[in-house]
Amino acid sequence: MKTNAIPSPVRIAVAEDDEIFREKVLIPILRKNGYEVAGFPDAGSLYANLGSYTPHIVILDVGLPDESGLAVARRLRVDPSMRILMLTGLREVPDHIRGLTNGADAYLSKPVPEDLLVATVESLVRRLDAPEQGPVGQWHTDADGWRLVSPAGRNLDLMALERLLIAELLKNAGTPVDRETLINLLRNDDDADFDPHRLEMIIHRLRRRASGAFGAELPLRAVRGIGYLFTTVQG
């Protein structure tokens, strides 16, 4: 069973245009908790320094002055090992969902309580060391569900909404899961504007990423009039 060591120190990049919040709040809290931290006022300065400072975790303000934090998250997501925490002054559920579907691992509204910020970062750090667990020769997820493992032992880091879907599909492997059940995993009770077609978008993206990671098609099938089926857990 393979386990990746947690890096020491864990490096965090903070891209936040509010200088006081960045330099007087976020960075001191993170450094106090033992993290190596670098701050950036915009997306451009973050990109310019990624060659010399490679973070394990990036904290992004959604409203950066030169590029949307959502767009930055999509760019950074090409490195599946990087963890992304988005911050926003917006509290609407659709805004949080947009952050998660654009590649964020977690999404918090400002002002962020210190204990919640620290707990969220600690959760992302644990994902840097997520061991592979599960029966050999079967599709499974790792210990905390953030990594899908193929029967051949190849890995795919899951995004937040993908993780919810895969957990439900694997739990019912071999049995179709109705579309409404899957949609409800992504829907908040107060989210009247939820677009059900988002389910198809997420599954399309998951299939595409899985094909690249596993070198084979994910055994996930649409069942007409019902929903989706993870066809097998066996290798």
- Low-confidence parts: none
Top-tier CATH class of the largest domain: Alpha Beta
What structural class do you assign from the helix and strand content?
A: alpha/beta
CATH architecture of the largest domain: 3-Layer(aba) Sandwich
| Largest sheet, strands/sense/barrel | 5 strands, parallel
> What's the number of domains?
2
Element order, helices and strands? EHEHEHEHEHEEEHEHHEE
Large-scale geometry: globular
Please report the total strand number as a whole number. 11
Task: Fill in the CATH topology of the largest domain.
Answer: Rossmann fold
Query: Which range best describes the helical content: under 10%, 10-25%, 25-40%, 40-55%, 55-70% or over 70%?
Result: 25-40%
**Beta-strand share of residues:** 15-25%
First-to-last CA distance: 17 Å
Give me the number of helical elements.
Answer: 8
Strand order of the largest sheet: 2-1-3-4-5
Descriptive report:
There is one protein chain. The chain is α/β, with parallel strands linked by helices and 235 residues long. It is built from eight helices and eleven strands. The strands form three sheets. Strands 2-1-3-4-5 form a five-stranded parallel β-sheet, with helices on both faces. The protein is globular and about 55 Å long. The mean pLDDT is 83.
